[in-house]
Amino acid sequence: MFVHFVVLAIFWMPVTLQFVKMRSFLATPSCDDKISNIEFVAEHQARSDISCAAMCDVNCGCFGFNSQMKMCRIHQSCDLVNMTSTEGGWRYYQFDPPPDCKGVMESGGSTSGLYVIDPFGDRQRLVTVYCDMETDAGGWTAIQRRLSGTMNFDKTWKEFKSGFGVPQNAYWIGNDIIHHLTNRQQHSLYVIFKHNNGVIFYQKYEEFSIGDECTNYQLNLAGLNTGNLGDSMINAAYSSANLNGMAFSTMDRDNDQYSGHCATKYSGGWWFNNCHDAFLNGPWPPEYWHDPWRPTISSVSNIAEIRLMIKPTEMHAELK
Ligand SMILES: *[C@@H]1O[C@H](CO)[C@@H](O)[C@H](O)[C@H]1NC(C)=O
């Protein structure tokens, strides 16, 4: 059983308030009076668990607080299997990562790269993802990433549901996670094709969400879309290539509008209609990957990286 509390640490710079950093921790009372066998990186006097938590910064994954000794121990990480020694008065607290990359950015992550997030909360399922902290004000969670020539995405329904791959080069975060995140609050979608010569093609959709498994993860796009790719997901050359409202299909689940089976024909899971003008999950040999983004990108032969990213939509007050 976990007890949840949130610590707010305010960092003052000489003149102005720079930012409010929020890190969340989960107490583990079931491990009371036990200590971690993994060496601590620092030990300080602390008045309370709250002041101890304030000492647990970006390099700290967990801390122990001893209410009798008023001591605080900072650890890089704690695994509960390593809580085997006994010493009276200790309670341990584990860092609970933010739900997405926007939360990572708000708690101090400022460079693009791999971060751990906790989309469902309470450390239910920690996932490592690629966070883009530069594009369009940063805070973008990559729900899909593909470096040229890496793994193909001809995966099963179950694999797309739970996620597969590694964020270092190719992964799908998982349809259940995409559904969970995009239904908690309004999200935008950002599509990136990075050319070998460094040029970036993108399209941003203001509103993006997907339904749950009972809807077959139905795709919902709304609002404006902008970018130098042009829209190929909604206003496709053929209405039968409009992906909006489409269910997800995989090699073992045919939910498309085609008499055949798009996911098998094009070797990858996606929100197919009959079948597509935009398809980011094709196979890497470019001759087998048709129309990744028709008509702007007709082949992936010069594409170094592809990413699908999401971020909670900024709510701006209306000016009157
Ligand atoms: C932590 O526990 C694991 C699993 O029992 C063990 O392999 C590892 O050596 C332990 N680490 C330390 C520092 O005791």
Describe the structure concisely for a colleague:
With 320 residues, the protein is mainly β.
State the shape: elongated
The fraction of residues assigned to DSSP E strands is 25-35%
Bound molecules: 2-acetamido-2-deoxy-beta-D-glucopyranose
Q: Supply the number of helical segments.
A: 5
Low-confidence region ranges: 8-20
| Total beta strands | 17
The helix content is 10-25%
> What's the mean pLDDT score?
92
Gyration radius (Cα, Å) is: 23 Å
Distance between the termini: 49 Å
How does the major sheet shape up?
A: 9 strands, antiparallel
SSE pattern: EEEEHEEEEHEEEHEEHEEEHE
Keywords:
six-stranded antiparallel beta sheet, mainly beta, signal, elongated, 17 strands, binds 2-acetamido-2-deoxy-beta-D-glucopyranose, 320 residues, secreted, 34% strand, single chain, nine-stranded antiparallel beta sheet, FIB_ANG-like
Structure write-up:
One of its GO terms (cellular component) is extracellular region. Pfam families: Fibrinogen_C (PF00147). 40% of the residues are buried. Strands 9, 10, 11, 12, 13, 14, 15, 16 and 17 form a 9-stranded antiparallel sheet that branches. A 6-stranded antiparallel sheet has the order 1-2-8-5-6-4. A two-stranded antiparallel sheet has the order 3-7. Helices cover 10% and strands 34% of the residues. It is built from 5 helices and 17 strands. The structure holds 2-acetamido-2-deoxy-beta-D-glucopyranose. Residues 37-38, 79, 81-82 line the site of 2-acetamido-2-deoxy-beta-D-glucopyranose.
